[in-house]
Amino acid sequence: MTTASDFALFDTPIGRCGIAWGAAGIIGLQLPEAGARATRVRMQQRFPGAREAMPPSRVRRALDAITGLLRGEACDLSTVALDLKGVPPFHRKVYEVARAIPPGTTLSYGEIATRIGAPGSARAVGQALGRNPFPIVVPCHRVLAAGGKTGGFTATGGVTTKLRMLALEGVTPKRNPRAELFDGEAGLGFDWRAAVAHLRAVDPKLARIVDLAGTAPLELKKTPSLFGALAEAIVYQQLSGKAAATIYDRVCALFPRASHGPTAEQILRVADKQLRGAGLSAAKVISLKDLARRTKAGELPTLAEAHAMDDEVIVERLTTVRGIGRWTAEMLLIFRLGRPDVLPVDDYGVRKGFALAYKKRELPAPKDLAKHGERWKPYRTVASWYCWRALDTAKS
């Protein structure tokens, strides 16, 4: 690989990215890590000896185009000069075809293989894109698996990051009829095994809980829409699982033709009296109606839009709904969207599980749990999962 002389970090709608350059052009791009510090460390690892510097005008123009593209603007990156010294010839061919894919469109690994004159080499194409040193400029996120499925992605956040980038360009990969949120192991958009390995390395006490609970990943709950997930969450609030399921089934029975649960429009049309008759409290009827109104008015994101949004932005948007607080939004981030770095510090189960795992007599204060959780980044979701498992283990 060509040696980079300089690098810089820059802010984009998907987080703080990195760029390295030399005399012949861009040497590499880096998608966001867990935070600016982690992105800087990653750049220093990828480009030893490179110094952090102000980008010259030619690089600044590339940064402006990249940032604009990630804001959904029509920006042309085809003129950005790349230093391809050291890039294998096969990879160069793959990158050339991938670079020609317009924003808002996609190709499959197999289609790229055919276009470079190597049909049957889809796996090799995938490997080449997995080693792509120029993400965004060489838009590997626009390359999908067969049948329009998402395929893999090697950046931090995995498939979640890929979905966010595609959503910014107005692309939603095909879903199966049951509306799975993600493809891959347990439907997660990140590598669970890598997360577990990270937690073992940074927290020996949590590693003991992993040994007791095992490494099976959490499973995402399927949902056809963000509205559907939030409506169900409102019904389930402050009830036992069995009682909530019964009431939710009664609510759904009011709409026999809605195979995936009621829509916002249907909730707005149904009388409050009918919802109360299904077992909902007056407060929950008000919350459900408010959710439906905001959804219909476009005040809340769709699933595709949520993929392109940061966790805190989602929390901020969802908590404008009456009856939906931060905890409910965090549960959606974990169990519906599969976000890797969520720590619900107010959750009793997480706090109690933490106290058991770390042999504390009292529950940790939320601020203390948040402070301890800094070491778990960027996989605080997985750490939360094992705190819940610690509580389950103690009960069994």
Question: Could you describe the 3D structure shown?
Answer:
- By secondary structure, the chain is of the alpha/beta class.
- It folds into four domains: 6-70, Double Stranded RNA Binding Domain (2-Layer Sandwich), CATH 3.30.160; 89-168, Winged helix-like DNA-binding domain superfamily/Winged helix DNA-binding domain (Arc Repressor Mutant, subunit A); 192-219 and 340-396, Endonuclease Iii, domain 2; 226-335, Endonuclease III, domain 1.
- It has 19 helices and six strands.
- Strands 3-2-1-4 form a four-stranded mixed β-sheet. The protein has a two-stranded parallel ribbon with strand order 5-6.
- The longest helix has 16 residues, at 380-395.
- The model is unreliable at 175-186 (pLDDT under 50).
Q: What is the count of DSSP helices, taking H or I runs of 4+ residues? A: 19
Number of extended strands: 6
CATH class of the largest domain: Mainly Alpha
CATH topology of the largest domain: Endonuclease III, domain 1
Give the low-pLDDT segments: 175-186
Relative strand content: 5-15%
Mean pLDDT: 87
Strand order of the largest sheet: 3-2-1-4
What does the radius of gyration come to?
23 Å
| Overall CATH architecture of the largest domain | Orthogonal Bundle
Range of helix content: 40-55%
Beginning-to-end CA distance, first to last residue:
54 Å
**How do the SSEs run, as a string of H and E?**
EEEHEHHEHHEHHHHHHHHHHHHHH
The overall number of domains is 4
Structural class: alpha/beta
**What gross morphology would you assign?**
globular
| Major beta sheet summary | 4 strands, mixed
Identify the CATH homologous superfamily of the largest domain: Hypothetical protein, domain 2
